[in-house]
Amino acid sequence: MVLSAILFFGQSAIAAVDRTFITTQDFNDFAVEPGKTEIFLNPGEHVTKQISITNRINKTVDFILSAEDLVGSDNSQQPIKLLGNERGPYSIKDFIKPEISTFSLKFGERITIPVDISVPTNVEPRGYYGALIVTNNPEIGPNSKPTEVEGKTRLVSRIGSILLVRVNGKGKEEGSLSDFKVIGPSKAFYEKRPEGFEIAYKNTGNVHLVPYGTITIKNIFGKSIEVLPVNAYFALPDSIRYHEVSWKQGFGLGRYTANLSLYKGYGTEYAESKVAFWIIPWKILLMVLVGIILIVTIGYYIATRFELMRK
Question: What is the pTM of this model?
Fold first, then answer.
């Protein structure tokens, strides 16, 4: 049975705009939910989802809701790039229609807005990607006068709710593991456990992938000492997605091997890789060695003194 729509965060949309008040602190910001929505549709289908915005600024604020296309990147610090007014190669702009696009919220007020997502009947079966962008207008409220905001610096914030839409059909699900290494600069040895491991996965298809898997760490004897889960994350087409997996701190000594098994997210295909490294806590070992030398020296001194006293 074909899955028509999956929403990772949130519930089914309601039929109309809904407003409510919640108890909140003054964080001088606003919150947007959900952070990410994944949707599967057949050509010609549509679905209604919802986006919620909560004003946590201690005054009434105007907001604008708009849609932007996004693309992946090869930058580990910026995995996705919003395109503003530009149209992306996987454009979603024409598919999205929110119930309203401008609104005001009082402090502690939350609004839930239905968003219709429709795909044409002749659309190509692949991925389409974008985001619903919420922008605040911090200095202009519904009762503000133009003279009140002249000469003021306006600090505008933008928060996005990512939409990952896949049209069912024969999409191109292709990707490969580009790199697997210890986080940080490569070293001959580490004084303590590394922070974790970095995975680089390249998506060469036309649909997003959701890599996941495990990292099995073995000691010098080949015994498994820990298995780290690689939680699912999304990799957009035509990009390299970097993902870090933390390794909790603890004592380590000797040679270790980290073995990665990574599924691409759909089907049973997976990739494997491994990285070997040494942990040599030389400061601790030096202190132990100095302690042993001191104990042996003191023991030798006491023994020789005792022998001299007997003579």
Answer: 0.78
